[in-house]
């Protein structure tokens, strides 16, 4: 029998077998379909869960990144808001000084340094001639007088405060009259010397600037009398100790007045 004939018989046998199977087997048995469906369903559920988990992880990462970005924006806005508050405080301080002390206020400046020397009392401002600061500018706060600008650099200025031993400020006593010179004293106080009084000075009296010396506007509060020294019967002048109204060691900002 030739190979071609064998192949023909094999083909006919396969066709007959196919006819028998399709004629008598209507559908695959349930057990077989279940066995086939179970792995397919498991594979589908597994891939579906894996996809959901992956998307959840991605979403969480995106949420965390978004939250981090929002926090950074909040920090920036908080910082900008604080700077606006500080600027507003500076303007308010300048307006108070202009209203109650002198109309010649030209601006404010931050205090960036305090001289640690026990013999001197100087503070450093964070502005200089590039910002319009010049020598002999009176320096004050709403609480009271601070001192006067003595040195100016491009972005810094040195202020000799009223508690410095080299400081000299013409003063008078409110509601009592008289004239004297306030000089820096030990311990952060001011001593008024050579005071020609119209009425006796008492503890608790308020001392303010006078026109004497021509460096400070009249009427800026200097401080409160805390001690009056016994007067020499042969001397018409009196002396007393004054606690400064401005807390010089704790200053953050000061106002600058146009030089007279």
Which short descriptors sum up this protein?
six-stranded antiparallel barrel; 12 strands; 260 residues; six-stranded antiparallel β-barrel; single chain; alpha+beta
Structure explained in plain terms:
By secondary structure, the chain is an alpha+beta fold. 36% of the residues lie in helices and 30% in strands. It is built from two helices and twelve strands; from the N terminus they run ααββββββββββββ. The strands form two sheets. Strands 1-2-5-4-3-12 form a six-stranded antiparallel barrel. The N and C termini lie far apart (136 Å). The model is unreliable at 24-28 and 30-37 (pLDDT under 50).
Low-confidence stretches: 24-28, 30-37
Shape: rod-shaped
Overall pLDDT score: 80
Instruction: Label the structural class.
Output: alpha+beta
Distance between the termini: 136 Å
Structural Rg: 46 Å
**Main sheet overview:** 6 strands, antiparallel, barrel
Q: What is the count of β-strands?
A: 12
Please estimate the helix content: 25-40%
Please, how many helices?
A: 2
Please give the structural blueprint:
Layout: H1 3-24, H2 30-100, E1 105-114, E2 122-125, E3 138-140, E4 145-152, E5 157-161, E6 168-173, E7 177-185, E8 189-196, E9 206-209, E10 221-228, E11 237-244, E12 253-257
Antiparallel strand pairs: 1-2, 1-12, 2-5, 3-4, 3-12, 4-5, 6-7, 6-9, 7-8, 8-11, 9-10, 10-11
Tell me briefly what this model is.
The protein is an alpha+beta fold and 260 residues long. Helix content is 36%, strand content 30%. Strands 1-2-5-4-3-12 form a 6-stranded antiparallel barrel. Strands 6-7-8-11-10-9 form a 6-stranded antiparallel β-barrel.
């Amino acid at each position: 029998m030739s190979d071609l004939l064998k192949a023909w018989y094999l083909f006919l046998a396969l066709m007959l077998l196919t006819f028998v199977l399709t004629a008598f087997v209507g559908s695959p048995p349930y057990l077989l379909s279940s066995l086939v469906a179970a792995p397919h369903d498991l594979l589908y559920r597994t891939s579906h869960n894996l996809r959901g988990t992956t998307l959840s992880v991605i979403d969480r990462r995106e949420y965390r990144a978004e939250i981090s970005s929002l926090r950074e924006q909040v920090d920036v806005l908080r910082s900008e808001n604080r700077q606006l508050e500080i600027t507003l405080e500076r303007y308010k301080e300048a307006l108070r000084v202009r209203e109650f002390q002198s109309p010649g206020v030209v601006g404010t400046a931050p205090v960036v340094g305090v001289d640690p020397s026990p013999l001197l009392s100087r503070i450093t401002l964070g502005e200089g001639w590039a910002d319009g600061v010049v020598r002999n500018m009176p320096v004050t706060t709403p609480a009271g007088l601070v001192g006067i600008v003595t040195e100016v650099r491009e972005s810094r200025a040195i202020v000799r405060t009223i508690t410095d031993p080299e400081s000299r400020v013409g003063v008078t006593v409110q509601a009592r009259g008289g004239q004297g010179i306030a000089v820096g004293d030990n311990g952060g106080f001011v001593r008024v010397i050579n005071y020609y009084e119209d009425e006796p000075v008492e503890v608790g009296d308020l001392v303010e600037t006078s026109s004497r010396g021509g460096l400070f506007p009249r009427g800026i509060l200097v401080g409160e009398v805390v001690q009056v020294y016994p007067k020499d019967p042969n001397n018409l002048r009196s002396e007393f100790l004054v606690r400064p109204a401005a807390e010089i060691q704790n200053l953050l900002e000061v106002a600058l007045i146009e030089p007279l």
